[in-house]
Amino acid sequence: MKIVILNKPYDVLSQFRPDEKHQTMADFIDDPELRIAGRLDMDSEGLMFLTDHGGLNQFITHPSNKKFKTYLVQVDGDITDEALEQLRKGVELNDGITLPAKAIKVSEPEWLWERVPPVRFRASVPTSWVEISICEGRNRQVRRMTATVGFPTLRLIRTKIGSIDLVQLGLQPGETKEIEPLLYPDFKDVPAAEPYRSRSYVKKPGGTGGKPINKKVNKDGTPKKKSGTPRIWQMEDGEKPRRKTNGTTRPSTKSRGRRTR
């Protein structure tokens, strides 16, 4: 199992597909075996996993595994104790109430790099910083949570996934580092690798996700050959079935191809 950590810069898309207006993962990662596990929005920054392990994405993002993801969040306004308590209890969003989060007010850290472009500044409105940890992975969840309690997010940096800490790794925006999974307790219960699932499959409630690209594989990981009766065009001449008749029919002499001229 290979795991590479990337400090994703602002305004970079979490995809390898080329884009005319924005940078993508392909500008920082050139290993074709790596896939993204745990995406970040274009306007978010920080820690991203890339791995060749097919089941790691679901293992990290599924709430039942309690892999907390920690974010450093700059919000518009001086966040109150009441707002922090709401985040800790759970916030009612349009797709349901969130699980309780860990939320504390912090000072702007000294290690933080400058964002390009910088966050807008308004002299009449202060900003504050919050460290939020969640074990869910809803779309733009942290931004929606802070907006719901009255303090919209201005800047969001993911600093941790489980015990992997971007600050301890010392990565600057755009830098990558391969880590050894055996050194981290987060990966001791990771399930066996599975084939990557088709993104064209729409996940249904209660389902298991996308359909595997290779549905059946041998023990060595190679795809199994399809079983069943071969088609007639796949058979050798001696294997093709003979037509059964009662002796009164004549062989067909009609040409099935193009007429000869």
Can you offer a commentary on this structure?
- This protein is of the alpha+beta class.
- The chain folds into two domains: 1-66 and 162-222, Pseudouridine synthase I, catalytic domain, N-terminal subdomain (Alpha-Beta Plaits, 2-Layer Sandwich); 68-159, Alpha-Beta Plaits, CATH 3.30.70.1560.
- 10% of the residues lie in helices and 23% in strands.
- The chain is built from four helices and 13 strands.
- The chain has helices spanning 56-61, 81-89, 141-148, 166-169; strands spanning 3-8, 12-13, 23-24, 35-37, 45-51, 69-76, 92-93, 96-97, 102-106, 127-134, 153-161, 164-165, 176-179.
- The strands form three sheets. Strands 1, 4, 5, 6, 9, 10, 11, 12 and 13 form a nine-stranded mixed beta sheet that branches. A two-stranded parallel ribbon has the order 2-3. Strands 7-8 form a two-stranded antiparallel sheet.
- The longest helix has 9 residues, at 81-89.
- It starts with a strand and ends in an 82-residue tail after the last strand.
- 21% of the residues are buried.
- Mean pLDDT is 82; it is low at 198-202.
- It holds the Pfam family PseudoU_synth_2.
Offer a quick outline of the entry.
Residues 3-147 form the Pseudouridine synthase RsuA/RluA-like domain. Its EC number is 5.4.99.-. Helix content is 10%, strand content 23%.
